């Protein structure tokens, strides 16, 4: 008889689970891991100054998750109503009115003052700190609509970062099993646009693809080889910065139906990939894609304008 | 697409120099330019991921074929990897050992790519045209069916049985192909027959 401590487990055979619809953001880790990844990427990048600055902002996001008073969960009846209507349970248009969010924004801006930053970033921060209620409401509305005005990207970046903290805290309190799919490329938690998508190696969902919300940080399942902007499966191709024989871990998924592209990250090939951090760090791909017929459809408030 | 130039916002937050990108607007234009200079000599490589069905058995597992190059862009494409399709409800990304070796099936030097004929008494296969192949198959099938077809059973009841020729079809077929295959075989009376329509 075998004395090996390793015993066969036949129950694992044939038990291939169905990939879950969504993974809710783990607020204790989401921003911390993002900051670590940004710092790591900054070690070897021409974009190091920007990545380091963002790492500082994301560290503040992470610290605030711990420091802020707990946020009231989304009421069960609101979640139920959203389920019935196939709508997102997190109402982004209501964020602006939330006192907890206003406190989040204030503390975030105050803490951001201490960061090393260029004059333009400091000036934008001061403008947001001095902004009146109407201007703040207007900026929150723009971000909730995933539509940032090109002449105020810097100001919106700070407000968007504060909204990310609040939305991730709300989303983190939801049960992923209570969500329903809404539409291709739409976050089932808050209705936000995806930053990018990621082929994951998580146990139980190996090789499936998850889109990551630019607002609340939810990861939701999307069928692979399908355009996240228009839902078409026709004319999907991939572009990557040519690097000899090495297989790229960041690619542009292009769609010939709507002529747009969204980044796809292969986390199953490189487990340290983090969606928001690697999206910014792979700016080179955006710059090369600018010369093609395709428009960027991934939405990341830290990387607008490509 | 995510940009909106509105006069209202311009008046409200005018002051900071207008830069068209987040990186530039935050004052990191130099880093952005350095990245642009670095990436300029690089080219974009095209790859494709294509869904298909494993051809081996009637389970019909979903597979994704990864290739370098894109045929639709007038390039040549070369399959570099094949794996199970995690979105496919039948296999959820898994493959049996045969399916997992599909790339070698595609790339095999002995893979059958056109009709081959080994003449009686010969020790090697020779390539023939599709026309020759079809003519020969039709001729041999007709001769065999004419010689061996069973029109009535032992009780004298009319039947449609051709038991001396068998047919085996592959699994990577649509419902319509399976239907047409079945009608073809059963119309001729072929008894020894298997295809995807069985499952």
Automatic annotation (TrEMBL), chain A:
Its main location: cytoplasm. SUPFAM superfamilies: FdhE-like. Keywords: Cytoplasm. It comes from the Bacteria. InterPro entries: FdhE-like_sf, FdhE_C, FdhE_central, FdhE_N, Formate_DH_accessory. Residues 20-182 form the FdhE N-terminal domain. Residues 225-303 form the FdhE C-terminal domain. Pfam families: FdhE_C (PF24860), FdhE_central (PF24859), FdhE_N (PF04216). Residues 186-224 form the FdhE central domain. The keyword Acetylation does not apply. It is found in: Cytoplasm. PANTHER family: PROTEIN FDHE. Necessary for formate dehydrogenase activity. Belongs to the FdhE family. This is Protein FdhE homolog. It comes from Tianweitania aestuarii. The gene is fdhE.
